[in-house]
Specification:
Blueprint (H helix, E strand, L loop, with lengths): L5 H18 L8 H18 L11 H9 L12 H24 L13 H4 L3 H4 L16 H6 L16 H17 L4 E5 L26 E5 L13
Antiparallel strand pairs: 1-2
Helix pairs in contact: 1-2, 1-4, 4-8
Length: 237
Amino acid sequence: MGNSPLEHAVQIVSLKLIFKEFFKLDPFGLSDKTMLEIAQEINHQWIASKSEASGGIVGNGKFKELFESLGLHSDSAKENPLNTFLPVYETLWRVVTHCIIELMHMPSKDETELVAADIEACQRLQSIWGDESHRYQPARWDSVTATMEKAYMPFGGSPYKCPASGSFGPHLIGILVAAFASKLRGSEWRLEFQDESDLCSGVLDDEMELGTDRAEGPCWIIKHKDGGILDDEELVD
């Protein structure tokens, strides 16, 4: 068995459901390997586009090859499948990954400083959310104030609000988090924090900060109770 980061599993399942929703493809007929290659190419292109050293985006030849293997065409900008699913996918898989980690380990983050236009800070301010704003507490939604509603912007705000902010995004996030959590709780598989490298440094406890940088590395591993680590080929049952 080889390493299988949690993010790979979430990316594969997210892409399969998105391709089903927007392109009417059968998720059970989609290769895990192809889904992971699409996810990795998106990540590669994103990092390249932000790097002056790389010269920006390096072309879409790989995307064209992958999409054609699914029967999708990307010969023109109008037909490119990325235009349809990328805004949804980029938000979905990262939100689901963090929700799973929060749900399974309930880590937290201390609020230190308010930065202008810092959405994450707005959603952790003690003056709005209480003394335990950094903790995972779903029960806080039992009583929501008008100020909380204004400060909570998981899908951004107008005029650039995420197109998945309606029913599709929240519902799919809930379904995926529940599905992964139900598989990981009380089963032969469990979620573990890997701290063997500098990218995964830190101690797993209630005060641990969850990083949002995509380049931090796969620190969360799906591991068997007997010690084996789930292989990428075995991600989706």
